[in-house]
Amino acid sequence: MSLIIYNTGMLVQTREESVAFTAGKDMAVLPVIENGWLLIEDGIIAGFGPPETIPAFSSVIPGLDAGGGYVFPAFCDPHTHLVYAGSREKEYTDKIRGLSYEEIAKRGGGILNSAKLLHETSEDELFRQSMERVREVISFGTGAVEIKSGYGLTTEDELKMLRVIRRIREESPVTVRSTFLGAHAVPAGYRDDRRGYVNLIVEEMIPAVAAARLADYIDVFCDRGFFTPEETARILEAGARHGMRPKIHANELDFSGGIQTGVEHGALSVDHLEFTGDDEIAALLGSGTMPTLLPGAAFFLGMTNPPARKMIDAGLPLAMASDYNPGSSPSGNMKLVVSLGCIRLRLLPEEAINAVTVNAAYAMGLSETHGSITVGKKANLFITKKIPSYEFLPYAYGSNLVETVILNGEVVSNHTSHIANRNSQIS
Ligand code: NIG
Ligand code: FE
Prior knowledge:
alpha/beta; Urease, subunit C, domain 1; TIM Barrel; eight-stranded parallel β-sheet; six-stranded mixed β-sheet; 18 strands; 35% helix; globular; disordered C terminus; binds N-(iminomethyl)-L-glutamic acid; binds fe (iii) ion
């Protein structure tokens, strides 16, 4: 099955050769082709180029008129908690009244509140609620998403969450990576026995998750008031023995030592990083661990921003993710994340787009297949409305400019007038 996309305003993030990630000054480089065409064959990008090189056979295969819209590789979202039950807007109101994220957590709200709701919700219902979010993020242009457990906090409920993630992977066209996050919070029953809970994770949960092959990665919330670097190290080492590479929460609430612990354990990414100083930057440089920022969470909680400019200027790569979750970021809109990256982290539009495409693909182990318009990569793309420039994407921060979403070469979401088959009109 072939499809040619033509009459584009621009193809954005075109790479002849796949790159693992962009770092430092290279993050400001965003390759594009004006008015380009793009050929899809059997779900894979088979060719692309400037308008004068459009293949002659393009007039006899199905075509999609982009109407001057821009074609981007679909967003990769390398950090979400989008499998959850219910919502937590009451806590949101408490925050407006002045309670902090940590104060809410101490009162049994926060993650423990979501764990209670999840426990009371059936697996089918959890899948149904989560799929609504998956469909929404696809319509916003996301083509790959990492999803964490971490609202179970018992072996049984963590497995339930991970099975829901597996079902999303099987039943949705979006590419899914799954992460075991048993160490998201210490459950109420273990408040006075933290060691007992870490033992449970190491001795029971990790082996059970690994035996059922339910997780690609392992995560720990390594931060003040949650898990210490020592506890984190123990959990990551147990995960490594079962083939799970770390992708951890670090330095959201303090200089917690999480970044160094992640790097020492070969983490694929360390995420949040609001508290990042010179030592953390030095640890990350040359490490292969992708610093991943979640500007939606800092925005929603009204917290400090990470020093993104300083990190890029030091030569680091950066990825960004939505952190879609009921407590600190109830949004999976990656276009908004691009805007927040520009507005709040002072990223250039080129840097922000690299952060949610090639670098985000790296942060979820998908560099080979996702994150750029490159021959041989999966045809996961979105087409915008007709726009004047790619800078317009973050600039128009409140408009949904994503009109058509193509995953595995098939149109899966279409709010538009893009004409899906020009040749049916010709014949
Ligand atoms: O990434 N920081 C830890 N975990 C989530 C929040 C989870 C929640 O509040 O439910 C986060 O922000
Ligand atoms: Fe998170």
